């Protein structure tokens, strides 16, 4: 860990969104007290500066992951493709009521993976069960220990999880119970949030956000209260909207009072505005996109999990045309199964490419903006994060241009998006603190964490096996509900790669 609060990053090619995106100019970056003090040629340092030689390195704004859940990090690699509603049968119980040791370890694993992949800020929309101060402390102290920047939003909802399933009534009672037929009272959850904002104020690398789980999982009263809370505390809001076809069907059939639209429901409860970010929006209509754009609301795309969980393909070209502000996320560790903004950026460009037959504008440069400036905007941190400019917080990464991904080096923007697998990430700085130095993590003991996880996994896998066994009877019923959803017409298609 660096003991000095001043850094001089000397002689790197500094990526500037508005400069030469293919061959960024060589410059020095001066950092003081966690912020970028100056960017320019031949900056001078005094004896108080630690100097990092960045020659042969690309200096890039720290990547931001605008959608993540740390609660199922240990489920990585346990599943292949499954429809979201069926995947929940396994992933929900494996994230709830776990031991303190496991919660700490899983938080650190996610933070470590993120940092190693050049992510300096993570938005953790955490399903925290139990939702209490003790568990909140465990999570926050693990993040603090890792050194990553956190936009923290424990999820709240006052409608039980089973509300995520259309045709839930055809499921036997015990299978409904598996998905969850209980919710915490509204008041207790609001009190919990108020308590956190008051007793653990944002500062340094901690930022707060508000996360109603999803509109269909919140009563109008809850959404109204949360909109008021966001206003009073000046906080951003993230919520899952239109992730699956089933959710579009729920909107059409169960929210007819709101025109069959979850966006209208959000609007009617005071949620639709510049603070709002909806996550996924695979099944959003063009008219809804236009309303999102004119309200200044944003969309966080998660193509990786949307594909793996069979949710569909978010209409990225239409979203760009509508002018909605965009961000990117990597989503659950058991749904994608990686915390890599590089993969998310590449997927954005590839899906946009295949959706238009004619040559389009190159999007590498644009998606780098979404993953940095756009994601900062989702958290209300525009002007603070996402670029290497004087006054911005000093969150940045050094990429080793000796990696074969840059042999030859033709374009910084294109090779970061299309070629970089994370291997090139060499040094990671958050709030002016070096958390990875020349590929060594300075903040946490990686080997100790590895041993701890190995020991925890014995119990975890035994629990998981028991969950799998208990869910066997649910599969046929869930499949029936799923098929009914597929047979219904929701007025749009978000799947390709079929001839029919
Ligand atoms: Zn999510």
Notes on the protein architecture:
This protein has 500 residues and is an alpha/beta fold. Helix content is 39%, strand content 18%. The strands form four sheets. Strands 1, 2, 3, 4, 5, 16, 17, 18 and 19 form a nine-stranded mixed beta sheet that branches. Strands 6-7-8-10 form a four-stranded parallel beta sheet. It starts with 5 loop residues before the first strand and ends in a 13-residue tail after the last helix. The mean pLDDT is 95. Bound molecules: zinc ion.
Radius of gyration: 22 Å
* 3D shape: globular
What portion of the residues fall into strands of 2 or more residues? 15-25%
> Average pLDDT value?
95
Main sheet characteristics: 9 strands, mixed
Bound small molecules, by name, code or SMILES, are: zinc ion
Question: Helix/strand/pairing class, anyone?
Answer: alpha/beta
Total helix count? 16
Helix amount: 25-40%
Quote the distance from N terminus to C terminus: 57 Å
Number of strands: 19
Contiguous uncertain segments of 5+ residues: none
Quick synopsis:
With about 500 residues, this protein is of the alpha/beta class. The chain has 16 helices and 19 strands. Helix content is about 40%, strand content about 20%.
């Amino acid at each position: 860990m660096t003991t000095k609060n001043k850094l001089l990053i000397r002689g790197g090619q500094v990526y500037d969104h508005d400069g030469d995106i293919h061959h960024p100019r060589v410059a020095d970056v001066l950092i003081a007290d966690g912020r970028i003090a100056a960017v320019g040629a031949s900056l001078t340092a005094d004896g108080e500066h630690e100097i990092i030689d960045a020659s042969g390195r690309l200096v890039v704004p720290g990547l931001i992951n605008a959608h993540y859940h740390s609660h199922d990090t240990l489920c990585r690699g346990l599943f292949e493709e499954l429809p979201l509603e069926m995947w929940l049968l396994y992933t929900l119980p494996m994230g709830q009521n776990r031991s303190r040791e496991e919660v700490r370890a899983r938080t650190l694993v996610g933070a470590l993976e993120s940092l190693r992949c050049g992510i300096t800020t993570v938005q953790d929309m955490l399903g925290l069960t139990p939702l209490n101060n003790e568990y909140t402390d465990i999570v926050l102290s693990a993040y603090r220990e890792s050194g990553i920047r956190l936009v923290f939003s424990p999820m709240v909802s006052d409608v039980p999880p089973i509300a995520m399933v259309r045709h839930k009534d055809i499921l036997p009672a015990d299978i409904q119970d598996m998905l969850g037929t209980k919710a915490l009272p509204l008041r207790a959850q609001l009190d919990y949030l108020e308590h956190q904002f008051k007793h653990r104020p944002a500062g340094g690398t901690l930022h707060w956000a508000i996360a109603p789980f999803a509109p269909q999982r919140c009563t109008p009263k809850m959404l109204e209260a949360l909109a008021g809370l966001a206003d009073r505390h000046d906080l951003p809001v993230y919520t899952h909207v239109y992730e699956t076809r089933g959710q579009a069907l729920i909107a059409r059939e169960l929210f007819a009072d709101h025109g069959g639209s979850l966006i209208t429901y959000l609007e009617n409860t005071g949620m639709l505005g510049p603070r709002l970010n909806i996550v996924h929006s695979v099944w959003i209509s063009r008219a809804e996109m236009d309303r999102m754009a004119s309200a200044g609301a944003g969309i966080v795309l998660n193509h990786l999990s949307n594909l793996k969980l069979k949710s569909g393909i978010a209409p990225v070209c239409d979203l760009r045309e509508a002018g909605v502000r965009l961000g990117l996320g990597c989503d659950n560790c058991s749904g994608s199964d990686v915390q890599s903004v590089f993969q998310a950026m590449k997927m954005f460009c590839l899906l946009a490419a295949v959706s238009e037959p004619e040559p389009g504008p190159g999007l590498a440069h644009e998606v780098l903006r979404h993953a940095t400036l756009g994601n900062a905007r989702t958290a209300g941190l525009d002007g603070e994060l996402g670029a290497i400019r004087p006054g911005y917080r000093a969150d940045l990464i050094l990429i080793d241009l000796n990696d074969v991904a840059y042999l030859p080096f033709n374009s910084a923007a294109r090779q970061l998006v299309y070629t970089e697998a994370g291997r090139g990430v060499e040094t990671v700085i958050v709030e002016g603190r070096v958390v990875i130095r020349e590929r060594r993590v300075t903040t946490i003991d990686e080997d100790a964490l590895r041993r701890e996880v190995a020991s925890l996994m014995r119990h975890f896998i035994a629990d998981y096996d028991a969950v799998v066994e208990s869910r066997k009877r649910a599969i046929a019923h869930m499949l029936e509900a799923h098929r009914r959803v597929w047979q219904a017409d929701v007025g749009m298609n978000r799947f390709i790669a079929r001839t029919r």
